[in-house]
Amino acid sequence: MAVTDPEAETHRRMSQILVPADTPGIEIEAVPVSGHRGRGWSTHCEVTYTGVRVPAANVLGERGDGFRIAQKRLGPGRIHHVMRWLGQMQRAFELMCRYALEREAFGGPLADKQTVQNWIADSAAEIQACRLMTLDAARKIDGGSEARVEISLIKFYAARVLNEVIDRAVQVHGGLGLTDRTPLAAMLAMARGGRIYDGPDEVHRMVVSRRILKEFKTGGTWRFS
Ligand SMILES: Cc1cc2nc3c(=O)[nH]c(=O)nc-3n(C[C@H](O)[C@H](O)[C@H](O)COP(=O)(O)OP(=O)(O)OC[C@H]3O[C@@H](n4cnc5c(N)ncnc54)[C@H](O)[C@@H]3O)c2cc1C
Predict the structure, then answer these.
(1) pLDDT higher than threshold 90 for residue 40
(2) What is the Å distance from ligand 1's center to 201 Cα?
(3) Alpha-carbon gap, residue 73 to 78, rounded angstroms
(4) In whole angstroms, what is the distance from residue 84 CA to residue 224 CA?
(5) Please, are residues 22 and 52 in contact by the beta-carbon 8 Å criterion?
(6) Its pTM surpasses 0.85
(7) Is 31's C-beta closer than 6 angstroms to any atom of ligand 1?
(8) CA of 178 to the centre of ligand 1 (A)
(9) In this structure, what are the phi and psi dihedrals at residue 218, rounded to the nearest 5 degrees?
């Protein structure tokens, strides 16, 4: 994706161009993320193009369509992230509850300590909120809406819940939670990226508040539906 028309209106400046990976001038450098190097393949890479030339026919769609095509992928991509995260939240929640019942400290199971009970109750409420917000966004997409507000809402909200639920599960496991004897430490390392990739929390909050305030500026209100 590259800027092909710097003077065009904001959303028409970029184009997407198909470049076969064996085209001369391409360099691919692996960039491990959160310590994850992949297994025989690279998880993330930096691609450098030096003097790369391809036919004009390799432009995807029309010249200037780049932003539109990217936006089309990003909505479904973001809800898909949250759907995966729901699975991770559930896994961490189950590990937390089972270990809380099993591990005894200071005269009884961790499950009897009020702090641990609060973590379980708060996690249950927040996971259910994420599930219902995801279903709501999916329902609106199925109804033909781009569901921009709903997708941004779940993107930043579920990213925080994901990190907090896994973090609580690690805390309940004590030192064990940081070893590789449970999947929690690896889950925690990967979850952190969720607050950044496909748009950091701050940008999604900005999108949500801008769209809501736009309604109020024109004399309307924001209807939750
Ligand atoms: C694991 C991973 C996978 C990724 N995969 C892809 C991919 O497949 N395709 C792709 O194109 N990109 C991918 N990215 C890139 C990712 O989308 C960007 O890193 C992300 O959008 C943030 O952009 P940036 O890194 O340039 O941060 P910047 O834009 O430099 O922002 C840095 C920080 O500044 C703050 N900030 C930025 N804007 C605002 C604002 N308006 N208001 C308040 N604070 C603000 C935020 O705290 C933000 O985290 C991936 C990143 C990661 C970590």
Answers:
(1) no
(2) 9
(3) 9
(4) 25
(5) no
(6) yes
(7) no
(8) 27
(9) -95, 20
